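Key idea: predict the complex, not the pieces.
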Amino acid sequence: MFAGENRRSNGRMDLAPNSDLRIAVLPGDGIGLEIMDACRAILDALEGRVGGYTLCYTPYRAGAALFSETGTDITDEDFDALGHADAILLGAIGDPTVRHPNGTEISPHLRIRTAFKLCTGLRPAKAYPNAPRRLRDERAADIDLVVVRESTEGLFHTAQIGEIIDDLEATEIMKITRPVCEQLFDETFALARRRKAQGGKGKVTCVDKANVFKAMAFFRKVFDERAARNPDIEVGYNYVDAQALDLIRRPWEFDVLVMENMFGDILSDLTAALVGGMGMAPCGEIGRDHAMFQPAHGSAPDIAGQDKANPTAMILSAAMMLEWLGERHDIDALKTAAKVLEAAVSEGFASGRVNPKEFGGPHGTKETARAVIDIIGETT
Ligand code: ATP
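Result:
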């Protein structure tokens, strides 16, 4: 049990009054289906144990499989419906064998990010006990950082519209805008402050290539303006190439790292590897009015349908969703549920009851979910 909570006679914890929140669920493609099943079972068990909130889930189809069947990757009606949800929970989308005529993969989630202005992509990388650490240095056990990836512009700005000219030249444009940067940096500093309140380092590192690109110098200029409004948070700077080096040399020294879209895409895979692999990489994509939560990994078609996927990233993404909803709607029960879930994952790894096949362990997707549900039952 957590401090300040009372247990009712039926074994459930008594917290805030019930509140119904609508969750749009997009399982997607490949392992998205199985990790979403696992996650939903855990969320239901968690809600039953913690109590004090009600989440209403509505499933929607989106992705490559739907595109293969119908020629559309999400219907207009469903796309609009996502805008009415309190949060979107997504499994994984994409299939390398299903592509648009220009060679790109089916990616409605990129349009969702843009349409709902989900510019702040939070990608935590935290070392869990017994998960592979990849670095021999014992300080790797202290890795606990967040890559904040701007998720709507940068070098992804022209992802849907970049052009190939006369089969001789291809162009994409990196776009950096002040309003998006201000929103991104404000949320980044707020995150660093929340982490500092819980014992974090209270430091934000701006990762860019301001020595070469005008767009990146502008990114840093706006960063400095917003940093001046947050004097309680320490700031640092690193060029993206040096940052890649430092994430191998001394990742335990970093706290919150904020960067352009493509840099964040690449470095967040690197940070996921530092703490085990893609199955450990959750993600929350936050806008002013909407948010989407999904693992940072793709649909992993090489292991889909075999009960081999590690659902941890999906589960931790759901924990991020609960925390975000709790903060946004001021519902303590949701914040508690987030903590219970994260603690159950941590305990699962510490005790060896979660030992995923991704790392050579015996546990498939379903068994991992079962262990997390059992631990939630034992600890609430
Ligand atoms: P995208 O570009 O859509 O992010 P990707 O091409 O980078 O996708 P992923 O689908 O993320 O590729 O898979 C990369 C590798 O990581 C694959 O070998 C895949 O099997 C593995 N992988 C990804 N997610 C998981 C998971 N949850 N559990 C186990 N292995 C995973």
